[in-house]
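Tutorial sheet, problem 5. The two components below are modelled jointly, 366 residues in total.
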Amino acid sequence: MQPAATEDTTLVDETLGGNQLSFQLLVERYQDRIFGLVRHYTRSMVEVEDIVQDTFIKAYRKLETFQRQSSFSTWLYRIAVNTSLDFLKRAGRNPVRAIEDPEVVGTPTQAGAPRSIAAPDANLEREEIARITHEVLEEIPENFRTVLVLREFEGMAYQEMADLLGISIGTIESRLFRARARFKDALVRMHPEYAVGS
Amino acid sequence: MNVTCENVRTLLSSYLDGELSEEQAKPARAHLMDCRNCREAVQEGKVIRRWLRDAELPVEVPMGFAARVARRAFAGDPGLLVPQPGVRGEKSLLPFVLKLAAVAAVVLFLFSLLIQKESLPSGEEIQATDQSWMFEEHGPNAEPLASEEDAEEAENAAADQAPEEPER
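Model answer (structure tokens):
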């Protein structure tokens, strides 16, 4: 029988007490997820590694401010998202934020626009699907991209996303709705071979 | 409860993501049974999710990453302050260099003014009407020497006053 994994909060306490190994365990525990999240903001693996490293170093420096009202993972994700967006700004690749008009919610597909999109071709390599998807994601405003990534790639619940981004569940719902619509529009525009109907 | 297409589309993301309570999902399901357009919208949402989920590739974390980060954090590393050093360097160094150049220009200008002031005689030291140099060789009581023009004039006047030599 394996011993139960040490709680995040215990590792946080030990890190604050000066235990470097405990912090290393925290990094090992979350590094895959943070790498997975950050790679949706830049294609360069060198940049991804820099951002992830900066995320963990910021987390260490701010560890005393961790209030424990949310989980450590939510707190760490927030730092990772902010660090990624900060990176895009500093690199002169200003993330575009879309204005969210509540009136748009529920609007059916525009007249004349393709009705639907085809599923990824079964013959396509996974790498090719990933390439197309990331290319399309880069076209989507930052606030929409972030909710899509958190939901689809990280599998976060709405409440967790709301806590992380500091917005209401209603905003998460409507933002996801629009984010998916934007994704579809961008995919059809950039790869019309996947459009279905007229 | 009368559920409209607009109601369902507003809840579409939550419906797809299984975030609706049974109380909310039941009327939405009933509407989908009757509404082909909304069914297609749900299908489309599922296709979009497939695009996103199929795009997930395994993460490759560099060897020894956690140990390296922990070591740097405990060594007091302030972080990379991304992006890359080159881009950051250009941004932070340029204003500094410009300020330095401006300060250097002002200092040079002031220095050149100072040098100019030191090397040229001032207005108090030399004047256009100053005749003191004339006394230097002849003593303080000597008459000032006439200029060449004055001398010529005096010579002409003397010639006029002199009696003409009688003709023989």
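Marking note: Chain A has a mean pLDDT of 84. Full credit if you identified this.
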